[in-house]
Amino acid sequence: MRNSFWGLASNISQALLISLFYVMLARKYSATDFSYFLIAISIYQFLTTISNLGLGQWFTREVANTGNTEKIISKFLKLQLYCGAGFYLFNVLIAFALYDNHEIRLLAALAGINIVFDNLIYVIKCLNIAGAAQHITFKIVVADSILKFLMVLLFCFFPMSIIALSFGLICIRFLTLNLFLKFGLRQRLDTRSLLINKIPIKEVARIVINNWPFLVIGSASVVYWRIGNIIISKMLSLFDVAIYEISFRIFSFFQIVPLILSATLFPHFVSLYNAGNTSQFTACYKKYLHFFLIYGLFIYTFIYSFSGWMVPFLFGQQYAAAPIYTEQMFLTMLLFPTGMLQATVLISMKLEKVDMIINIISLIIVVSSILVGLSFIHSLTVVNISIFISFLIFHICQDYILVKKGILTIRGVMNFYSATVLFIAGYAYLTSKYMAVTLFGIVWALVAVVLTITRWIKTVRSQSAIADTHTL
Q: What is the C-alpha to C-alpha distance for residues 83 and 283, in angstroms, rounded to an integer?
């Protein structure tokens, strides 16, 4: 729980400050300059997740299972450095191949430098997760976000070009890397060890080949979202790029809780599965499944009720068209939390190759659906619905595997989808009859009361069962 708290605190703080950062960018720059910046960031984020080869979970396992931690850290750090440099060059090539605009190319070249920095930071973040030291990540991430936000505040008083802003962001990221190296690594790795422990090409190939499913699993999520922005930039307008990014920025803030909790639950699921305790493993999964389901319903109804005034208020009236597309994107939030939990369960059961195949299927579906759909209908609705459909198929594939493994039942799966559809359909109908603010408060107050009573009944029954056992 302590590790989860620091992971959540760091990411929520970062997301909040980064969201404010993007709010101010959207308000201060023209839609064209803002879109250029977003395209460059999309290319960089598209590649930065692939560049770490998805080896975070492999690294966490190795740190936990071996005594020679220093050697593993030094090798992993070198591997990430080499990959970061290689993918930076690839980032520049992609920008020049896809776009003729000089400003987009220059912004992409600047933003891509962060790939190298992010790869090194990735090592230390993974190390902090494995060592239950996410409080270090929390402090540094918050400092990084505050500095970025302060830079935009400075821009309010001293206007600068989008190029100058991008250069300033690189300087801040470099400072963040040094903070991670100083406070997150030096206590666990000697400089001499870093120089001595080499990583031959053969060993790199062996690590990647043995763990390549993690590359697909770890990168699919970011590729899944970032490739949409790149396709939009080629097939729709720059204004659509900005609206899509606004919707995604709000979505990314609310996806933090399931992502961090799933990552933090991973070692617990692994220990239960390795101990052969199937009943406790299944019970733990089902307990958290209910929480993740409720979280998804809560966030979707929140956006459905308040996005109409919230989005224009935050990003400005020039993006008054964004709320409807934000609501469409948040359809995926109904499945996203439980999908992340089930992915964690599959990997805990050493089914990472199965999860990888599911991710590939989902990625193929979303890309093909967007490309085909936009060929006929030039609207962001096509993109958002394609994302939802592909994630629905992703979730159904997970359900199928978990049913085969005896973790879920067909009845449980049907109950999940039925409850979700009925709840959302009922909420949408009531929204047309009553004020959204009042309805949201009443509905979730009733849900809280029902959950509290249900939990109290279970506690009473459990205590009664224990008392009966003692009597016997």
A: 40
